[in-house]
Every structure is written in C-alpha cells, then in structure tokens.
Fold this protein.
Amino acid sequence: MPYSTNTRITFARLRKVLRYDAQTGAFTWLVQLAPRGPVGSIAGWVSQNRVRIGVDGTEYLAHRLAWLYVKGRWPRHEIDHINRNSSDNRWCNLREATASENHCNTGLRSDNTSGVKGVHYRTDRGKWEARIKLHQKVYVLGQFPVFANAVRARAEALVLHGAFGTLH
C-alpha cells in the first residue's frame, strides 16, 4: 500500500475506525476493515522501524495518526520521537518539529569515532574540531588540542538546537 498525502483520513474517520492508547502508543481496530485484523486487535505493522497503518487504501505513519487523534489536526511539520525510537508512538515521546529540529535529535553517525556528535579529530592539524549544524549550515566552533575542550564547546553550542540538541 503506497504512502499518500493526497487523500488523508479525517479526524472523524480516524476516531471511527481506530482507538489510540496514548500510554502504550498502540492503535487498535474499532471496526473490521477487510482484510485487516479483527475488532480489538493491534493495527499496523513495522517497516523500517516505523509503525505503519493502512486505512481505506492509504498507508499512514502511526506517529502522524497519533498526532491527528490527540490534537484533532494533522501536524504542520514532522513528528520527532524524543527517545529516537521511531516505533515508540507513546504520546509522551512525540513532539512536532521542523525538519531541521528533527535532524538535531539523531544519534551518532556510523563513522563517528569520538563518541560525541559534532566532534572529530583533525589529523592534518593534530587537533579536535567541534562543529554544529544549524539550518543546513555547518559552523566550526573551534579546534582544540584537548578533547574535553572540544566537547565543552559543542555542548555550549547546543543551546542553538534548543530542546532537540544532543551530544550522543
């Protein structure tokens, strides 16, 4: 079932066919929609670590349906999973975010060797470099002979990312 944003389920239709448990993040069927599960069963499946739910021929991301279910409107931006587990759709784990904010709340890159986001060793200079990215632009915060000083500079710059900033 392809993901579509052209035909969106309405708040009323969502509340008629699915129940959302904000404590667990799970959706359950209120009606039998063939070939979906029986009434009371958990709706959706996990694909690429995201819960997806098909309703009326359209596939939806469960975290976006949760937003509609609770707020009564579609999110204006992206939905960020605070704990970075994109299959954890408990209400306390969801917040609306711009693409830039959502990108701030990511884990370490697979090629990170320092263990701290935005800090890497410059072999050509023999120093640790601290960087931060904001609105698609990278800012070099400085180069430091001591790792801890680079980490401190990166930590102090996290104020730019607000609640979405993280070092790990």
User: Anything to note?
Assistant: The chain has four helices and ten strands.
